[in-house]
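A note from the maintainers: we've had questions about how concatenated examples are separated. There is no special marker in the raw files; a new sequence line simply starts the next protein. For clarity in this README we add a label.
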Amino acid sequence: MNFHKRIGIISLAVGILAAGIGQSPAPVRADVVWDHWTQADALQAAGNSKGAVPHWQFLTDYYASNGDWENAALFSGKLDSYFDEIGDYDQAIYYYEQENKFWVNAGKDWGAVKLQRADQIRTTVELYREESSESIVQALTQPKGSSLAKFEPAYGTYLGIYSEQDPKVGNIFTKMQSVYGKKHAIYLAYAHWGQTFPSSYAKRAKDAGGALQIAWEPDDGLDPVTDGAYLRSWAREAKAAGIPIFLRFAGEMNGAWVKWHGNPAQYIAKFRMLHDVFAAEAPNVAMVWSPGDVPANDIDPYYPGDAYVDWVGVSLYIEPYENGDPSLPSMLATSNVERLTRLYNTYSDRKPLMMSETGVPHYSHSAGEDYTEWAKLNLQRLYEIMPYKYPRLKAITYFNVDQGMSNAKNDYSLSTSSDIQSYYSGLIANPYLLSDVKDAAKPTDHVGYVPIDSNHPAFTKQTRIVPFIKIPDVYIGKVEYLLNGRVISSQTSLPYGLELKAGEVPEGSVLQLRILNKSGQQVALRTFSLSSQVSVDINGATQQFEQPPVIVNGSTFTPLRAIFEAMGAKVDYEASTRTVTATKGSTVVKLTLDQSTVYVNGVAKQLEEPARLVNGYTLAPARFVGETFGGTVNWDGSSRTVTITTK
């Protein structure tokens, strides 16, 4: 909650940067360089910024080649501002990123605001889809080279909320399901060093079948935080609560707006001390280290180390105006998605991430403006795109508060707008958003999500695809979906997404997304390779194969050994003769690879297509494989599913 006390970091950076540009350092007096400089100044003063561009480009390259990073950054700044103003966003992004690089080389962090602007005007179109194979999903959601953290789900994202100021819920957490249609997994409470353990909140969370996130804040700084009777008693009460507790101690420590900022070594020592105390006294407590997403350059020095951190959290908000001030530039083009990237890339290989606090306002009190459409756009990004794009994001806690005219003067509340309440309820109905905290938790439908890319091009049966679309115009007019050149759907309202059946998407298909702005102009067209695969159900259970079924000359080929063994047969293979022998009860089947004749109890039968090796696996026609041991085989073309029934 300390986010709401911070003072215009980005605005301050803009002011510093503007001052730097206004006080240009004395130019080098080499004739060619001086000529470019003076000509650029004259052209800009005459209102001909376009004419000044080649001079700015020369000067940028010249100063960069000489290691004069400040001058290189200043002239890059002139270029990115010009290209941004004329709507040449690709060029603007290039120079914004280059300017940031030059400022970093100069030892200054003034480029952070430029990177933010680059993200605002960057056109992004990505696609994510459902995936029913747990092994594929968990390859993305598991930590690299280590086990799951305390209370970490195998995959999926815990639903969390701060509801104390929600007029429809308050602190009666059991109301969440009736108000929003779904039980939540984590409830947020604030506590302060020196005060007693918030046992009433813990009891209410327990009554609701949930866990508790505690934001524990040392309001008098870190000096009073010591190991003693108070801390030990607090820890024992946490254990007695009998529920999972996520302890977020001294969050947003990277921000100068909190009293525990400014001494990373002291912070680390206190955090480690607390970790050791809770490890001894309260094993139901997971330690959450939770900076704010800005200022980004001050985050890493405060990290206590992998051995002392269970989860990495973050306070991450977006809003129409910086700090609720309509006199500052609009922040509508800033999406929540990109703001997690740096922290995620730094820590997600080692730790699960949670959004300890986050919110999307639908009304700005300071401006008196309604932002319902913008809120819907970013709520979908928060609850669909971010968990799919960042599969190690394992918890999201929403700051459900109408601030009125205090702090950032935004209405983040989910229930003050019936439209937002209904929209939120629809988003969180997704089983991927988990309602129960437990080790290795999973969605009830066992469905995860993967990006549609070269590593995940194919699905089985049916899938839902969800696009992440961001354009400089902010608001999207229409999304058109083209499959193999034909428009199959178009959408003009949120949330965006499309259901597809396998029978609609043959191998080698091409899916395109055409994006139009509110004026009806096409602003993006992206192409994705997408295919479906044949699936096999045996007695109602979908089979998972290392080698999926394939279509050969119009016939469906399925893995022979895997299906025979699933049906209770014993399978042997003789490499010298390339012969497969399968036995179940009194039935013996023999076949040789690449030969059409098979023998069932010594009787020859002919296959339309012979069995063959595919990627080292023996595949044979599905009907033969399913019927050989008495199964009934059917084919569902809409889902491209072979069904085998043996009982």
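[label: protein 2]
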Amino acid sequence: MVIIQQRSWKQKLEQKQRRVESVSHLVNGSIIPTEKIVDALELLIKPGDRVVLEGNNQKQASFLSQSLVLVDPEKVHDLHMIMSSVSRPEHLDLFDEGIAKRIDLSYAGPQSMRIAQMIEDGRLVLGDLHTYIELYGRLFVDLTPNVVLVAADKADRHGNLYTGPNTEETPTIVEAAAFSDGIVIAQVNEIVDELPRVDIPNSWVDFIVEADHPYELEPLFTRDPRHITDIQILQAMMCIRGIYEKHSVQSLNHGIGFNTAAIELLLPSYGEKLGLKGKICKNWVLNPHPTLIPAIESGWAESIYCFGGELGMEKYVEARRDVFFTGKDGSMRSNRTLAQLAGQYAADLFIGSTLQMDAYGNSSTVTKGRVAGYGGAPNMGHNPGGRRHSTEAWYNMMTSTDELARGKKLVVQVAETYQDANTPVFVERLDAVDVKKQANLAVAPVMIYAEDITHVVTEEGIAYLYKTDSPAERREMIASIAGVTPLGMEHDVKQTQQLRDRGLVALPEDLNIQRGEANRSLLAAKNIDELVQWSGGLYEPPAKFKSW
């Protein structure tokens, strides 16, 4: 006879109910008064909790992060923070105050040097550096949160949320808590009677609080064309001619940077001259970069799906709904999780930059004294084994005649051979190997592995790495375009000529590009004011980008 011991199968729910009941004297229904938020957090969050604090590339739950750092460390401590983006000072103040102990993250650009120092000093325990999709996935597996703190544009009095154009990761991280009996707290800019649309239903949300100031929004993807250099224009010309045209790239993702901004601004000029409209760059997965405006206006872009919004682009996007994904209210609907998946599986090409690349093509933005993470680059910057649909660009990467051979995603790294302060991009060994030991990581934090990179572009030329399986040959190809870096000084002129003859390396002249033609006169817009003009006045740039 089997005796089944009775147990409660609602322990998480019962714990949640106790937490919710503990703040009943503070709240009005689901509304936490602004001035009571710290008191509420001290009751709703328990020591050792896994807490997701929303910090996107742009949208920050800034009121909640500033409030969390004010809680009493005697009451709330040893938190395990889970954050896709660590970008504000108080995100790390939590560790200095003893409120948090451990962190799992994806990206920490502005705080990368401070994180590295805190790891070295033992003030912060790093769980892992994740890609975005990886981190979101673990919220539903082994990092299920106890508490989620998010930001939304508006809430109605029932607790429904409107996120507007900056939805980003909010639905994903809310769902992870809402359906595992966790606590969901949303800061909103205002509480209204009626929402333009419901992005997150009130049944997913436990509490809302009207922030004392709007959430922070950073125009992370805005690049002023004034700062695009002739070298970046030369690289952009090589990308268009030697990669986009050569492989018929129609669906793509651009990373952040002046290199890709230059490509976007060359499409209506240089691309038009080459007769490529309608043949390349039709379907995009990226934020609404202002530098895309001329390409949109001149008919290059057919569709753009966005990870998030971009400050100042709201009216322009609303007026171009044939191109962007928008709701009935007219505002854009973004979703970082779905955009990451689209960039991973549905796009033919990912192009981005890096801080270091070793002799064989492994690259990383984690360097000595700087733990930046890598966000979504590894998601989109690899060849997804699960892909089954074929496009001309994907098929063009096929190098085998095997009857089961398949294509490959184009993964392009663009870098000038030297960074600022005469630091070479091309190195013999990645700093990430040393960071692995320092941070006690199981695996070195490589952003994109050599096996996934198909093309490397420098001011010297293009290395078509997908054409070889030989590590020694890869090294020779990269060295031939590595300039006067230590690696570049290894290359032999005769060997480089042989690589060019075999089509493994292409210099600008091999692509019928005259270096002297690479100058700012080719840019469709040369400053922010011209982008505004292209938009018909719909683009409203943030004040820091205005020069008039």
